[in-house]
Write a structure and sequence with these properties.
The chain has 7 helices and 16 strands. It is α/β, with parallel strands linked by helices and 287 residues long. The chain has 2 domains: 82 residues, Golgi alpha-mannosidase II (Immunoglobulin-like, Sandwich), CATH 2.60.40; 193 residues, Rossmann fold. It has a 7-stranded mixed beta sheet. A 5-stranded mixed beta sheet has the order 1-2-3-4-5, with no helix packed on it. It has a two-stranded antiparallel ribbon with strand order 6-7. 37% of the residues are buried.
């Protein structure tokens, strides 16, 4: 899996910060994992167009606007300086787009029909827009946040995505999967990026560590029973990957299933250092 992403660079990290470039814009923001020393010069860090100062303030320099567009791994994305320090894209998700493409090629050859792709906790739609470029594929994009859905639609339009190739669903991903399972609605490729903590409603919250068994059962319940692939990313504890793996092996009786667990890490532009960014579980059944 390639460690570099076109349109994105991790220029440097260290001392609790990371210096990133999205398209033409350089930003400096906190990174709790960057406990090492910085490698690059102070002059490079001072070139940042925007510096995030917690809890909710960006210090902008030059002519930067609060929103801009960048092509990340070939997908046009509208980015924005958000009050929580985010920009509307987690770049590590671009690391496995090529793996999704390879899986789609295999499945399309096997099934000789339009593929059904389910993108859960889909955020601003990097994978959604990418999957529409894979040929014959219908994507269902699910996120509970209406703003994220609207943002994803803007990104889809920027990529020339046909209006009938994506089904937009504002809903809790787990509730949606449960309904799809009852209807026996199955998908060929499932992409899921559950948060470490979720607040579905005022009285309904959960953590990934406690919810992962339910999530895995739901995901596998809507995966095509003959052949399908799941891309499960997480930023929770290391146990999440092994729990997911073991449940999948139990459900498939150890047969006709391949499971790989990969680190998602962003490699610095000018060194071999890597900034951890969670893990990816790829589960292939009958492929």
């Amino acid at each position: 899996m390639p460690s570099q992403i076109t349109g994105y660079k991790l220029l440097d990290s260290g001392e609790g910060r990371k210096l990133e470039q999205f398209g033409d814009i350089i930003i400096d923001r906190p990174s709790s994992l960057s406990s090492w020393k910085r490698r690059q010069s102070a002059e490079l860090w001072q070139r940042a167009d925007a510096v995030y100062a917690p809890p909710n303030r960006w210090e902008c320099h030059g002519s930067i606007r609060s929103a801009w567009t960048a092509s990340i791994a070939g997908v046009v994305m509208r980015l924005e300086l958000m009050s929580n320090g985010q920009v509307g894209l987690f770049p590590e998700h671009a690391l496995y787009l090529s793996s999704i493409s390879s899986a789609a090629d295999k499945l399309r050859t096997m099934k000789k029909r339009e593929l059904r792709v389910l993108n859960l906790f889909a955020y601003t739609g990097l994978a959604t827009s990418f999957c529409t470029t894979l040929g014959s594929a219908q994507v269902t994009h699910v996120d509970l946040a209406k703003r994220a859905i609207e943002w994803a639609k803007i990104n889809a339009e920027a990529n020339g995505v046909a209006s009938d190739s994506v089904r937009w669903i504002v809903d809790d991903a787990l509730a949606f999967m449960a309904r799809e399972q009852r209807k026996n609605s199955l998908y060929d490729i499932i992409i899921i990026d559950p948060p470490s903590f979720s607040r579905v409603s005022k009285n309904n919250t959960w953590t990934l560590d406690e919810k992962v068994p339910d999530i895995v059962h739901l995901v596998l319940g809507v995966l095509d029973a003959q052949a399908g692939v799941v891309f499960f990313t997480n930023h929770s504890s290391a146990s999440t990957s092994d729990v997911t793996r073991n449940i999948a092996l139990d459900l498939f009786n150890d047969h006709n299933v391949e499971i790989s667990i990969r680190s998602l890490a962003l490699e610095e532009e000018s060194s071999s250092r890597r900034l951890p960014a969670g893990s990816l579980i790829v589960l292939s059944h009958g492929v």
